[in-house]
Amino acid sequence: MQHNKDFIKLNIAIAIASVILGIGFWSLKNITQSPTNTSNAGSLSESTAHSDVQMSIGDKILLKREIAVDNPAFQSAKENGVRAMANKNYPEAVKYFEEALTIQRNAPETRIYLNNAKIGAEEAYTIAVAVPAIPQNNFNRGGTNRHPANALEMLRGFAQAQEEINQPDKRINGKRIKLLIVDDNDNRDNAANVARQIISNKNIIGVIGHRLTPVSKIAAPLYAKEKVVFIAPTGIYSDLNRSDYALNPDNRKRYVFRTDTDSEIAQKQLADYLESQNIKKVAIFYDSSKEITYSQELRRDFMKFFENKSQGREVIDSIDIATLDDKFFDKGKVDRVIQKGAEAILILPNFNSRESALNIISAMPPKSSGKSVQLIGDVSNLYRSITLSQGEKAEGMVMAVATQLTEQNKFYQDALSLWGGKIDLAWQTATSYDAAQIFIEALKGIQAQNRNVYREAIQEQICKKDFKATAASGETLQFDCDISSTPKDRVKLVQVTAPDTNKPNSEYSFKLVQDTK
């Protein structure tokens, strides 16, 4: 009899243990794959209040110089909006942010804060956008200007995507997108801390940003390890494709992506172009600065693909523009490489040495001289209106870039309407918009399947074979996650072309090389 009682007790104990284990397993599963909490403004503000990393949904100003000309009325309205946002008085915040934008429309930080204020305490999908609000490096080499030009270019892209998706008829299952602006200072030393702060906020479903690839390279493995999708809109280094940067070390899935081109692919395109033009002798102007290795990376990749002594292709000279004096530029340096037989000149500045690059362009012989020298430009820093302003001297210059916009492009026209009048719409604005579109399309796909939104679900959606997002250029963004972090076919050659004499008010512009033939 005692044996039967003991047997019954044993079975009861086993049953209870099974229930406890089952509940524990269920809880663990829901902890690891629970929906990411759609955030409200309060939870985001409270989570960043004691952080040494500067973040804001609108409750503090990160960009001290958002507009080109100081405007006290704009600044006052913006500050009033921020105070109202910090006090969770969202209708008041909306009123003041709208007032500020009436005074100055071309203010992307304020636009994002307005969109966030309109959401108020409602649930929303939150994406962190990391930009150099107060860049560590000076705007100009040797100067003291720390204007956040790059941050503004990126924020315009993020803000435009947010503005579009948050319209009543565009929302994702009725929910809007909230953007948390994070200041990474372009600072590698603080990159890991910034990434950890973002990761720790469970309201954040993903991350876009980090302008400098060296900053991205530090942050990317941390995002991947914690299974947070990170999209770099301005990262070109091939390293971002590597498994130790882009893949989670346990499940080997890709969590790091980009909407810029790949440096190796871009430089191979340029090398192939020169070969197609039967150009064999190239001189390179590059920047050897240790702080930013962008220029050196491109130089290395180009030489790897171009140089072939057996076929007569060689780099006959490499000149370090980090040592050049912008104010007293020696035009003779350009003349000397041409005299040495350079048939093409490749210019690879860092952001801080763009002035030297422009000096090199202006030192090129005029077309009337009969000296035919092909100019080749870098991927990022010369694909801008400052190059077009060089006029005839820049004519014919070829670059390998991620995206190409025209004034007829819908994104371009919408940008003019949003920011007011003609603006210098930089490529960083387009690739930042593209990165936001990838998150938006991933969220749409998840909701269409009636699935919960959590961080890993974003990755799963992006890596589906049928996943597609539409870029600012109108092209399709699609990934092969088994191979690369870069969208398929994400490089194209553009050329500086002369004004069309048949069109009034025509100016120098970038056109696809294939369209200039």
Task: Note down, in words, how this protein is organized.
This protein is globular. A 6-stranded mixed sheet has the order 1-3-2-4-5-6, sandwiched between helices. It has 17 helices and 15 strands. With 517 residues, it is α/β, with parallel strands linked by helices. Helix content is 41%, strand content 14%. InterPro entries: BCAA_transport, Leu-bd, Peripla_BP_I.
What's the gist of this structure?
This is Leucine-binding protein domain-containing protein. This protein has 517 residues and is of the alpha/beta class.
CATH architecture descriptor name of the largest domain: 3-Layer(aba) Sandwich
| Main sheet characteristics | 6 strands, mixed
Strands ordered across the widest β-sheet: 1-3-2-4-5-6
State the CATH class of the largest domain: Alpha Beta
What's the gyration radius in Å?
Answer: 26 Å
Cα separation of the termini:
99 Å
* CATH T-level fold name of the largest domain: Rossmann fold
Shape: globular
Give the rounded overall mean pLDDT.
87
Helix content: 40-55%
Structural class label: alpha/beta
What ranges have pLDDT less than 50 throughout 5 or more consecutive residues? 1-34, 138-145
Strand-residue proportion: 5-15%
User: What is the tally of beta strands?
Assistant: 15
Number of helices: 17
The CATH homologous superfamily of the largest domain is termed Response regulator
**Total domain modules:** 2
Keywords: Membrane, Signal, Transmembrane, Transmembrane helix
Organism: Dulcicalothrix desertica PCC 7102
Transmembrane segments: 7-28
InterPro entries: BCAA_transport, Leu-bd, Peripla_BP_I
